[in-house]
Design brief:
Length: about 350
């Protein structure tokens, strides 16, 4: 019997395992191998302020330091400071998990399948039965445990597509283009390459013609594509995180900024919060209350702002102007719109 069983060794699961391994009997079930963890079509832009206690630099995972963000709408561009990283997701997750392995947690390679009847009685993986006091769902959008209580619905997600393009000079700027009120294109620097992406609200399917014309516009029409992929991104109001002895964190718990779709920072912050609660012997309900006080309420407000933004250009313009104006309201909105 484990104290804690974590399903998923991505950003949220590895951050939690790293912090719990010294004090608890922990196992992580992950369907990918250690040589693959963290890899997914996501450029890994994240603000530095999310990291407390450990940072990407500790694991050689700060691929690039980012200093600014440029936002373009209809031919107009605005530039703001951004203090953050492009994260090498694989190095980050692997570094955290290897450090946790040194503290003696158990790594189970396999696809977790919960046994659910009036609650989760146990989880099966790698032909084993795994019992634990607390089960943490850090399985990303697939939400293998949380989904038993609150199933995913299509409208809860945006769809993100990313291509890694050969070449690029690194750089220290994130380049974001608001194509219309439902679609955003971006060009983020990476190590020896460039990531070009496209997010569409509502997960209605990608318009590849629009993506091609966006790439032509930014001069990358003929560029060699090294890798491509698409994934769902939670883009919805915050949900409950605790169900009986199951806690959902990261994308499984919709701890994602509904406007920017930035989920790396919040995944780490919520993993930290849960680790601290468990170490202090607090109840899961106390953890959930803390989450709502510190992040959940903010994300709920942003969800409502997001719904207004999705209705058309005018509010979008208003938000962009307010966000970038150097007044107290602009500063407050900037704080809420963290990546
Ligand atoms: C195109 C795109 C661009 C993005 N850009 C950014 C960005 O620039 N900045 C940002 O902050 N966020 C971004 N995000 C969001 C970010 O990727 C996620 O919010 C973040 O990765 C969430 O971490 P997680 O640990 O919850 O999930 P994940 O990192 O997805 O990890 C989930 C893990 O669970 C494992 N797993 C799943 N099912 C099972 C199972 N049944 N058994 C065992 N293991 C399982 C998976 O293999 C995976 O390792 C982007 C997302 C997309 C799709």
């Amino acid at each position: 019997m484990y104290d804690v069983c974590i399903v998923g060794g991505g950003i949220a699961g590895s951050s939690l395992a790293y912090q719990l391994a010294p004090d608890f009997n922990v196992c992580v079930i992950e369907k990918k191998g250690l040589d693959e963890v963290g890899r997914k079509p996501c450029p890994g832009a994240v603000e530095r302020s999310w990291f407390k206690g450990f940072s990407p630099e500790d694991f050689g995972a700060a691929a690039l330091r980012i200093k600014s963000m440029r936002l373009s709408v209809g031919g107009r561009s605005l530039r703001v400071n951004f203090d953050g990283y492009v994260l090498n997701r694989h190095r980050f997750c692997r570094g955290l998990l290897e450090a946790a392995l040194g503290e003696g947690f158990e790594w189970v390679r396999g696809r977790a399948e919960p046994s659910f009847k009036d609650g989760i009685s146990h989880v099966r993986a790698d032909e084993r039965r795994i019992d634990a006091e607390v089960y943490v769902d850090a399985s990303g959008s697939s939400a293998v445990l949380r989904g038993c209580y609150l199933p995913n619905r299509r409208e809860m997600f945006a769809l993100g597509y990313m291509e890694t393009i050969d070449g690029g000079d690194g750089g220290d700027e994130l380049d974001i283009h608001l194509l219309n009120h439902r679609e955003v294109g971006w060009i983020f620097p990476a190590e020896h390459s460039t990531n070009v992406g496209y997010v569409t609200a509502g997960a209605r399917g990608l318009d590849f013609r629009k993506l091609r014309s966006f790439k032509r516009e930014i001069g990358l029409g003929g560029a060699r594509v090294l890798e491509r992929g698409q994934k769902l991104i939670p883009s919805y109001k915050p949900i409950r995180l605790v169900y009986d002895n199951v806690v959902a964190i990261g994308d499984a718990g919709f701890t994602v900024n509904p406007i920017t779709c930035g989920g790396i920072g919040p995944s780490i912050a919520v993993a930290n919060m849960l680790a601290e609660s468990l170490k202090r012997g607090k109840s899961l309900e106390a953890f959930e209350a803390k989450y709502w006080r510190s992040l959940g309420k903010k994300f709920e407000k942003l969800h409502h702002v997001n719904r207004v933004l999705r209705k058309g250009w005018l509010p979008l313009w208003w938000a962009v102007r307010t966000y970038y104006d150097d007044n107290p309201l602009g500063k407050l909105i900037k704080q809420l719109l963290r990546i």
